[in-house]
Amino acid sequence: MNARPVAALGVAITTFLAVAAVLTEALAARIAFSVFVGLPVGIAAGVVTGAATQTRLWRSRGARPVLLGIAAFGYAVLAAAAVSYAVPPARGLVSVATAVPFAAVCAVSVGLLARRYSDRID
What we know:
73% of the residues lie in helices and 0% in strands. The chain has helices at 4-27, 35-55, 64-86, 96-116. Helix 1 (4-27) runs antiparallel to helix 2, helix 1 (4-27) crosses helix 3 (64-86) and helix 3 (64-86) packs antiparallel against helix 4. The protein starts with a helix and ends in a 6-residue tail after the last helix.
């Protein structure tokens, strides 16, 4: 299976989410609309890491399970956000406090599975 584009997009999404959230929260006390700083910086960081994964990082076979685990984290957060948005009864159950641990379990699971079956990942 060619997982390179899946990993590159997932790593970009994870980086975008992490950088945008951290920067927005860090600047919230000093800048009134810190999201206008956090989102563009997060997008730029996501593009850079996605391109680096696509072109350089994927070449290292030992890094592939870690990259796929990082990608799974971003996909799981997006899935939790989609469920929260699309399923009104789930809005009370899905929050950052539940989505992040869910995504962490998904990331570790995918990383371990990718390490176990590394011969199947191209």
